[in-house]
Q: What sequence folds into this?
């Protein structure tokens, strides 16, 4: 291999500007974090609700929701046909 390999050019060419923006962003994150009041009991409740939400994906219920699923499939087919007709017509 001859020469130096290609490197993607930097988005911000001046290193001092790049460091200034990174430090400014870090200062902004710290200031934002310090000004937010966190209610830890609500966070804990939210984690429990989030856990239930994620666990609901592991046991899908196709039998009692079959009408909703069928309706969604018909709607998808109608949108596909409509977009094809419009695409061909234009």
A:
């Amino acid at each position: 291999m001859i020469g130096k390999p290609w490197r993607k050019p930097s988005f911000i060419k001046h290193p001092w500007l790049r460091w200034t923006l990174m430090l400014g962003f870090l200062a902004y994150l710290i200031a934002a974090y310090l000004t937010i009041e966190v209610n830890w009991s609500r966070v804990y409740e939210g984690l429990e609700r989030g856990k239930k939400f994620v666990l609901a994906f592991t046991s899908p219920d196709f039998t009692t929701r079959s009408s909703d699923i069928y309706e969604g499939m018909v709607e998808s087919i109608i949108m596909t046909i409509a977009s094809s007709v419009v695409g061909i017509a234009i």
